[in-house]
Amino acid sequence: MLTNQRFINVLIPIISVILGLLAGAIIMLSFGYNPIEGYGALYEGAFGNSYFTGETIVKVAPLILSGIAVAFAFRTGLFNIGVEGQVFVGWLASVWVGISFEAPMIIHLPLAILSAGVAGALWGFVPGFLKAKFGVHEVIVSIMMNYIALHTCNALIRNVLTDRLDSTEPVADSASLSSQLFYEWTGSRLHWGAVVALALAFVMWFILEKTTKGYELRSVGFNQNASNYAGMNVNRNIVYSFLISGSFAGIAGAMQGLGTYGNMFVQSSFTNIGFDGIAVALLGGNTALGSVFGAFLFGTLKNGAGSMPLVANIPKELVDIIVALIIFFVASGYIIRWALTRVKREGK
Amino acid sequence: MDYVIEMLNIRKEFPGIVANDNINLQVEKGEIHALLGENGAGKSTLMNVLFGLYQPEKGEIRVNGKPVKITNPNIANDLGIGMVHQHFMLVDTFSVTENIILGSEPKKSGTVDIKKAEAEVQEISERYGLKVDPTAKIKDISVGMQQRVEILKTLYRGADILILDEPTAVLTPQEIHELIDIMRTLIKEGKSIILITHKLKEIMEVCDRCTVIRKGQGIGTVDVKETSTTELASLMVGREVSFRTEKTPAHPKEEILKISDLRVKDARGAEMVKGLHLDVKAGEIVGIAGVDGNGQSELIEAIAGLRKVESGSILLNKETITHFTPRKVTESGVAHIPQDRHKFGLVLDFPIGENMVLQNYYQKPYSSMGILNYKEIYKQANKLIEEYDVRTPSEHTPARALSGGNQQKAIIGREVDRSPDLLIAAQPTRGLDVGAIEFIHKKLIEERDKGKAVLLLSFELEEILNVSDRIAIMFDGQIVANVKPEDTTEQELGLLMAGSQVEKKAGES
């Protein structure tokens, strides 16, 4: 059985999750909490009823997009740590378009989403351009761009979009992703964003694997010298990569602005959607499908963990440790692969 | 006779292939024993078995007559076996000493006793004539020196049997001479050496005996004194190999490439090509001979559009390609087999199939409207794999997994298949075995016979003399002489490459 490579590939994530859960259980036991109750609360909080399931999906949708944004850049050899800031500007742009006018939904909604993508792309353009033109490291620039985004968005909300208020008015119905139907079914904020996110995950896969541009981007990611030798414009591809990655991130912001919250409000710190996107991308091996699964795991844990302090009385700090342990074990799947091959070798 | 190493009837299988079958290797104490075979014949597998990285399915290993089980490299180390890998395993920013002691640091009250280690390294270095500075940083010393650090590392760990995996592949001729001296000193001091190589000349020069492997099979062991390069080559390849490349006289026609007064700077801004003139005609192979570092690489890169031209002109078919981008140069009809196949020639993490369309993926039929057509890409890849005998498990295998010779055959297939007017081949046979070299030379000559212009850059005089129809000698950024291979000798070329013609010319005029 163990010789079957495909079997191993399925087995590893399952074992990883089980080990992570076991480690979390040990932590809970050693602090005197009942792990069955704890995990029961986690499950209930994530999928216990239609409301929780809906809220879980609400958490997953932007993570898919921030995940594929990071993964796309990684595949082309770039580290876009600026997804966080691109989410902010995307969020703001979508809300701005959403509240400024009314139009038929078939125009207004796509326009609002598109403007989020364009805003994210512009924010991504800056580190991409500086890297291509002057060789400035993209990580430094995009971290700074995150702060610029956070404070610029806050200033614009206070001074331009509102008169000294902390949040904008809700977006027009014609630009909203939210759904009366979903609300009636689940009572949650579940909106159409998950569909958009899945569609864009498909787009990311398609661009990378099926188009000539994706071929170039992957080639530049692996070997800039050979790409240059083959006639590809390496610097232009760096900029393209940041534009595309940034637009995915911007649309992650639209999920919040047009779906989950329906407006934008002043924020004291980062949303972490962008930073979690890095973990999502790495968990998913920088592939589209992997990012979808990674986002699903992250979103589930985040949402479900919220119930653990309430239902099982486990302190929030301990919950964070347990969630971190589960993610840690999933991320270190290679240790399990190593152990499995070792067992296989000795079993011979 | 006492053997320090005996590997008897070794068999090692990988899924789908038998890498080693029934191989015997017996190394006597104090000899340099060559392990000869083509790229991918199974030499490295056999050595990895000896070094404990692989476990054989069958066979026995004896060290100093005692049967042993080597299940990991630490056991190999304890048995006195040390390996110098082809690709060095050194930390660039560490000093020589720090690299050598890494993993077995001498300690003094909890800290590393670097002074003691340096003294020890100095002592070993002097005893074996390695002349390594123990305090130098790895990134500041030459490739040849780095290799000596690797040798020192094994000696520091008490190795008596050294495995050197193609040690000369990365060295200059001068460094090769020095390495050979070092090997002789090691033998004098009672060490034994296994030399993995496919360079016949080196075997003839330094080795005592030679074990030949062909396609995973042990062919036998011969005494070097009683053999010849021809015999070794045919043992290795399994058929007669001609060292003299067969070709008819060239019939040069119209001018394809014309370079006038070209000036090119290198990355540091030093002028490397200094007003160079060169032309290549259809139906001829022009070989550029010269000592490395006289501007050859910059010249080739300038033609290919990879390096900025400061002044002068490059004409292809009478039209300028002087300041063209690499893509426009390619589209104008130039193909380029680059000097460094890993850095430039291939995207190693791409499947070999995708590498086959690296320059024309954007053209029909490989894509249309920006969408790749994988069916056509892999059809083309399979065609080239077949035609150029690229040995790969499948077209989906990453290029990284192929042996050097097969990677090079893939590049040559890709470049030649575009049917360019000008084919630039920069060191096309570096690191390859005689079988592959013969194949590549034949392909270059075939292109010439089809009426293409071929520009060959090589640091191997033998290759230049065998393949070229005309030799352009490059010295200090200029072509200082043009000679016919049949009218010259290696000695004369050597003198010209050292710049002696310049004075002679100056005296004449």
TrEMBL record, chain A:
It is found in: Cell membrane. GO terms for cellular component: plasma membrane. One of its GO terms (molecular function) is transmembrane transporter activity. Keywords: Cell membrane, Membrane, Transmembrane, Transmembrane helix. InterPro entries: ABC_transp_permease. It is a multi-pass membrane protein. The chain crosses the membrane at residues 7-31, 51-74, 81-99, 105-126, 138-157, 190-208, 238-258, 278-298, 318-340. It comes from the Bacteria. CDD domains: TM_PBP1_transp_TpRbsC_like. This is Branched-chain amino acid ABC transporter permease. It comes from Pontibacillus chungwhensis BH030062. The lineage of its organism: Bacteria, Bacillati, Bacillota, Bacilli, Bacillales.
From TrEMBL, chain B:
SUPFAM superfamilies: P-loop containing nucleoside triphosphate hydrolases. It comes from the Bacteria. It is a peripheral membrane protein. Residues 5-240, 257-501 form the ABC transporter domain. GO terms for molecular function: ATP binding; ATP hydrolysis activity. It is found in: Cell membrane. PROSITE patterns: ABC_TRANSPORTER_1, ABC_TRANSPORTER_2. The keyword Nuclease does not apply. Pfam families: ABC_tran (PF00005). InterPro entries: AAA+_ATPase (IPR003593), ABC_carbohydrate_import_ATPase (IPR050107), ABC_transporter-like_ATP-bd (IPR003439), ABC_transporter-like_CS (IPR017871), P-loop_NTPase (IPR027417). GO terms for cellular component: plasma membrane. Its main location: membrane. Keywords: ATP-binding, Cell membrane, Membrane, Nucleotide-binding, Repeat, Translocase, Transport. Belongs to the ABC transporter superfamily. This is Heme ABC transporter ATP-binding protein. It comes from Pontibacillus chungwhensis BH030062.
